[in-house]
Amino acid sequence: MALGGITTLLFVSSSTILLNSARQVEKLSLTRNLNQVEQALQNQVNILGNAATDYATWDDTYAYAQGQKPGYVSNSIGDVTFTSTQADWLAIARDSQTLLYSATYDYSSGQITSPADEVFEDALLALPKLLQAGREPLNPQGVVLISGQLTLLVSRPILRSNGSGPAVGSFIFGQTLDADKLAKLSKSTQLSLSLHSLTPASTAHQQVLARLKAGEPEIIMPLTNREIAAYRLIYDLHRRPAMLLRIDAPRPVYQQMLLGLRYLALSLLVASTVSGLIIWRLLERSLQYLRERDHIQQVLQQEAALRQSELRYREKAEELELTLQALRETQAQLLHSEKMSSLGQLVAGIAHEINNPISFIYGNVTHARQYAQSLLDLIALYQQHLPHLPQPIQDAQASLDLPFITADLPKLLNSMRVGAERIRTIVLSLRTFSHMDEEGLKRVEIHHGIDSTLLILQHRLQTSANGTAIQVITDYGNLPPVECYPSQLNQVFLNILNNAIDALQSPHAPNGFLADSSPFLIHIQTRYLENEEGKNSKEGKGGDRTDGQIQICIANNGPAIPEDLKPRLFDPFFTTKPVGQGTGLGLTVCYQIIVETHHGILRCNSVPGHHTEFIIQIPVSQTTKRFKA
Predict the structure, then answer these.
(1) Residue 448 in contact with residue 431, Cβ under 8 Å?
(2) What SS3 string covers 508-538?
(3) Facing residues of 92 across strands?
(4) DSSP state of 84
(5) The pLDDT of residue 348
(6) What is the DSSP string of 29-73?
(7) pLDDT score, position 525
(8) CB-based contact 245:37 (threshold 8 Å)
(9) Read out DSSP for 104-130?
(10) Which backbone phi and psi does 411 adopt, to 5 degrees?
(11) DSSP bridge partners of 404
(12) Share of the chain above pLDDT 70, in %
């Protein structure tokens, strides 16, 4: 009897301890699961908030909210606006009474519908807290109920890109937690989740709601010996209860405890000693499981903290690298701007000073030639009608060598005219190269710029390393007028051709690859590339093509560029020339002009023993290129 009482007391005590421990473990686990779900919802709200901030603090959005940029929506709102944030809809509001734009996105069809349905717009206008731009709170976000569904909402005041105001409206993102998204959330958290309306509520839920509204943060309620549920209220923007979150979970720990108790009871019936050992073993296993679980959680938390710290340091390093690169590019741009400004003023000044006197000479050579011919005709007429001239005139005629003067004077005047025309051509090339009389985007003939650049470099093309001239072969295609910054493109041609001449003037320059007649060659080829639609390319005024691209290839048969140096060709201040012979900015400036300013492509192909080729590719119309981008 005493043994039975002791055994019974031991069993009851053990059962109480084990089951209470199991319930405590379940409560901790489910509380952590509830926190995990709330954190997942908050993370999605933060994603929507970051996207809304990016759009709201943008000069284009600011201009659209003021009615100044009608094409903003078609250019800036697209599929990626929704898919990158998993948003279902967005809205742009001027105030609590006016919606400038609203749209929803169907993920099954990939279609944007604007405006959004009236239910959404009416619900949005009923939330003035989201639409009061410039008032507190500045960044409202949270959840609301729209048509009985839980909806994540974020709103940001529309400001300029530098963050200045005043705010002219609100930019709003939203995501509806429908069945599909709730299923995805359940899958990502590996939890069985459900959302329940507060009205009407079942009898069981009414009891839970009463306890939660009384102040309990969450309710953990066993359903059966195999299932348990956890409840927590989700509050909306106004801190009012919106929906009831429920997590259903199995009870493996509780089941393990029950199974242990069954074995314990059976063992106690066999022998009190054996049952005592079994109880001790079960307690030890339970405590070990808890310790291991806590240890694993601590390790996971430490690893997460280390990853976050590593990510922060990596982001800082990337920011520093970007800042350094921006400083280098800014310095290169400043040097280039100053150089181009000085060069343009110098060239324009020289061209102007030469043009005035040469125009005077060129304009009077024709008249001088006519006058001289008239005088020569008059002298011939005198000789015809007065064959017997006085002796002094005959002596003067013999001393002047009149027949030689009569034959050579027209040749002399013709040479002066040819020289004057040559100087006028050089002056025109200088003005074409500098383009000092043009500002902004212009439609120009690219071939004129290449020809003027070649004329300016003529003195360098006359002699090479072995004393022979460098031959330039041009293979011009049929190009339409190109919308560009002419002086900047001429600077690109000048830099690349200078580098080609430097390579050919190297004492180790190899024989040519383009022709056997001259070992020192520069080959320039241009051609027109149609757009992706081929024959559907557009035409502008006068039949000119305004779509597609042009390609300019400048090749030379100088030494090849080593493979290890190719990735650094366009880096600022990188040069392979000796100190004092290069700044390392030539190709950097070319890259910025072609890629960043003209939205084109600049690449280098260098094959050892064959040639080095720079390929330039830019759109015919810069306006069309920017619109498509």
Answers:
(1) no
(2) CCCCCCCCCCCCCEEEEEEEEECCCCHHHCC
(3) 101, 171
(4) T
(5) 58
(6) HHHHHHHHHHHHHHHHHHHHHHHHHHHHB-HHHHHHHTT--TTHH
(7) 94
(8) yes
(9) EEETTTTEEESSPPHHHHHHHHT-HHH
(10) -65, -40
(11) none
(12) 77
Per-residue pLDDT for 535 more than 60?
no
The first and second tokens of residue 59, run together, are: 């000069």
Least Cα distance to 375 among 420, 405, 353 occurs for 405
Two structure tokens written together for 606: 């260098």
When pLDDT is averaged across residues 457-472 and rounded to a whole number, the result is 75
Mark out the alpha helices in 435-541 (DSSP H runs).
446-456, 458-461, 486-504
> Reduced to 3 states, what is the DSSP secondary structure of residue 10?
helix
- Tell whether the torsion through CA atoms of 271, 272, 277 and 282 is positive or negative: positive
Q: Identify the weakest region by mean pLDDT among 210-214, 249-253, 365-369, 530-534.
A: 530-534
pLDDT at 447: 92
Would you give the distance in Å from CA 362 to the centre of its chain?
54
Contacts of 109 (CB under 8 A, 6+ apart): none
- Describe the chain by its helix, strand, coil percentages, rounded to 5: 55, 20, 25
Residue with tokens 């310095």: 331
For residues 434 and 13, what is the distance between their CA atoms, to the nearest angstrom?
A: 99
Q: How far apart are CA 177 and CA 194, in angstroms?
A: 11
The Cα–Cα gap between 346 and 340 comes to: 10
Q: Terminus-to-terminus CA distance in the chain, angstroms?
A: 91
pTM for the full predicted model? 0.42
**What tokens were used for 364?**
């009077």
How confident is the model over 315-325, as pLDDT tens digits? Answer: 888 888 888 87
